[in-house]
Structure to design on (193 residues):
């Protein structure tokens, strides 16, 4: 097996692992006071962007969305099928792709720090996803943009908890297993050392 075939196989494995993680975290639902539940699915999206980077992470998202498109119940709440791509949450699904790219780019613009990890998860995993999701939700539902934005703020506390969890997980993973970040320069150096 050549080095490029081995690298390609490893990349495919990482894509599949993070797609599975995103799907499994979609089954985690934590009810909050006020009736707005937190699902773990966007935590998986944040982790994919933080660990896999801007080139590989979108493939994990694309795999999850392809599985949803063929009807598998891989999205939060056991949703799947083509209907989710014309429903009010389609903007958020598209935002996942843009979000992991932004997360990955922000993580790779400098040295690894916990605060860069948190900022990347917040900007890409929350702000970018909301920037796609809220306007599309307003368009699909016919609810004015300002009201849709206001109602979406109910999810912000849960998303901030996920940003914190993603940061803690990635900082711990970086210390324990730097090879997980093999597309970064330091990960490659540690993997070959």
């Amino acid at each position: 097996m050549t080095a490029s075939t081995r690298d390609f196989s490893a990349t495919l494995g990482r894509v599949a692992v993070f797609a599975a993680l995103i799907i499994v975290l979609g089954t985690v639902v934590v009810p909050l006071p006020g009736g707005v539940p937190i699902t773990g699915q966007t935590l998986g999206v944040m982790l994919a962007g933080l660990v896999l980077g801007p080139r590989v992470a979108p493939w994990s998202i694309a795999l999850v969305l392809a599985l949803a498109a063929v009807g598998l119940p891989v999205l939060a709440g056991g949703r799947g099928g083509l209907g989710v791509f014309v429903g009010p949450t389609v903007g958020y699904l598209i935002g996942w792709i843009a979000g992991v790219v932004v997360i990955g780019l922000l993580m790779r613009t400098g040295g690894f720090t916990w605060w860069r990890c948190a900022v990347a998860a917040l900007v890409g995993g929350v702000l970018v996803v909301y920037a796609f999701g809220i306007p599309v939700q307003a368009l699909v539902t016919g609810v004015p943009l300002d009201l849709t934005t206001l109602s979406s703020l109910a999810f912000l506390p849960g998303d901030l908890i996920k940003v914190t969890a993603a940061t803690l997980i990635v900082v711990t993973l970086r210390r324990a297993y730097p090879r997980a970040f093999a597309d970064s320069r330091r990960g490659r150096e540690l993997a070959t050392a």
In short: Confidence is low (pLDDT under 50) at residues 184-193. The radius of gyration is 17 Å. Helices lie at 3-25, 41-69, 90-107, 114-141, 145-152, 156-176, 185-192. The first strand starts at residue 29 and ends at 30.
